[in-house]
Write a structure and sequence with these properties.
By secondary structure, the protein is of the alpha/beta class. The protein folds into 2 domains: 72 residues, Arc Repressor Mutant, subunit A; 135 residues, 3-Layer(aba) Sandwich (Rossmann fold). It contains 15 helices and 5 strands. Helix 14 links the parallel strand 4 and strand 5. InterPro entries: Homeodomain-like_sf, HTH_RpiR, RpiR-like, SIS_dom_sf, WH-like_DNA-bd_sf.
Length: 278
């Protein structure tokens, strides 16, 4: 019991340390606050130079070997110079090659995903970086506002501005229907115009537009807005979105951004449903 109390007091004291002190302490015991070295290398794959990326791939391919290899052995395995190994260690957030080896040895226990091919790891890193940037720039208040509009809507109408937007519109409709939310999808401009003319304050519209919307679509959206419908614009064109809709949700780069928007909206609705059940 005494040992447990001392441990509790110690960690409560640690929690009160300034962030820079805590970071230095974590670094000194090989437990950096940014996570283990393997995770950091995988997350930063897209940020390394071409030569540094070759070192990263060699390490991820066989962390056990890298944790015990000499600088010359690791350089040979990666096909780079020993000087590149030193530069990589610093780029990865380590003091030197010895610090890198120590952290690799500590992290080299059942590393998930380390057996993935290097090209897949690069792809995974790029996707993770893209989604992280999107989450950092996407205002949480916008997502909350969009979820609020969907919660109060008696019916949800999803407009797909083009062929590239159709998969996301269809997926959102499917997800909403499985959650008990009445949802329809419009692909045809004439049907969109007709649907917009029938909307009112207890309905919501979501527009997916991967490219700049044309004047006809903007006119349709503005008509629905004048009639009181809640409008959510999922598009990159901020000027058109802010002018036409109530909420703007930028999808970021690539199709994973639009999938993230779908997840955030459906998760928000599901969370509200769970709270009502409780």
């Amino acid at each position: 019991m005494g040992g447990q109390r001392h441990a509790a007091v110690f960690w409560l004291t640690v929690a009160a340390w300034p962030k820079d002190v805590l970071a230095r302490f974590s670094h000194s015991i090989g437990r950096d606050t940014e996570g283990d070295i393997i995770s950091r290398i995988r997350q930063r794959l897209a940020e390394f130079s071409q030569q540094e990326a070759r070192v990263a791939q060699a390490i991820l391919h066989d962390p056990g070997f890298a944790s015990s290899a000499t600088i010359d052995q690791l350089a040979q395995a990666a096909g780079v110079s020993p000087a590149t190994i030193t530069r990589f260690a610093r780029a990865a957030g380590c003091d030197d090659i010895r610090d890198l080896r120590m952290k690799l040895a500590q992290a080299n226990t059942a590393i998930p995903g380390s057996e993935l091919p290097a090209c897949w790891q690069l792809r995974l890193s790029a996707i993770q970086q893209s989604l992280t940037q999107q989450l950092e720039t996407l205002p949480e208040a916008h997502v909350s506002r969009a979820v609020s509009l969907l919660k109060r809507a008696r019916a949800i109408h999803i407009f797909s501005a083009g062929a590239a937007d159709t998969p996301f519109a269809s997926l959102l409709q499917y997800r909403l229907l499985t959650q008990g939310q009445p949802a329809s999808v419009c692909y045809d401009p004439a049907l969109m115009s007709f649907t917009a003319s029938m909307l009112n304050h207890d309905q919501a519209m979501i527009v997916f537009a991967s490219s700049a919307p044309d004047s006809a679509l903007l006119a349709t959206v503005q008509q629905a807005r004048r009639q009181g419908a809640g409008i959510i614009m999922v598009m990159k064109d901020s000027a058109s979105a802010v002018h036409a809709g109530d909420v703007w949700l930028p999808p970021g780069e690539g199709h994973y951004g639009a999938l993230l928007i779908v997840d955030l909206l459906c998760d928000g609705l599901a969370a509200g449903s769970d709270e009502r059940k409780i």
